[in-house]
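Proteins fold reproducibly. Next comes an illustrative record:
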Amino acid sequence: MDHSIKEILWNQFGASIDMLINVILHCPNDYFLTNRRFFYMAFHSAIFLDYYLTIPPEDFSPLLAFTSKVPEDRPAEAIDDLIPDRIYSKRELVDYLKKSRIKCKKLIDALTEKTMNKRFTEGNGPNDMDYPILEILLYNLRHTQHHAAQLNLFIRQDLDQHMEWSFRAGDIIQKV
């Protein structure tokens, strides 16, 4: 795979991870502890960033434990069925995201013409993902940026705080 394409992909994917780290890190502690919707979304973002970077996905081994729960057993603020086994600290979430950031960079750096067409395959069910690696990377980038934007919106609406925009990987991470 062309080096410049990998560099562009990393610059944008890394920037979305940096923005996610930034909004969690700069979220006031009292808000983080009281706004469960913010916490569940931050947790969901960390877990799925790592999951979508795991090839093959059956090798996924999350660094933060969770339990899958049926709808009637989920907290109202949860955004999916993966419920953390406890309330993790901002530092634990940020540390996890930083490890996933490294994992993402290594995956992108290792892409070749052959490996980018390797499959991310969850199973054979109708809703199971079966994407080439390049597509799951782009999907993951969109998913990460989507939730980073939602978390930024919470902070903006509830606390009238503005978070920095990252143009490329590393623009704001050194401040994080």
Summary: The two ends are 31 Å apart (CA to CA). The mean pLDDT is 95. The CA atoms of residues 20 and 149 lie 8 Å apart.
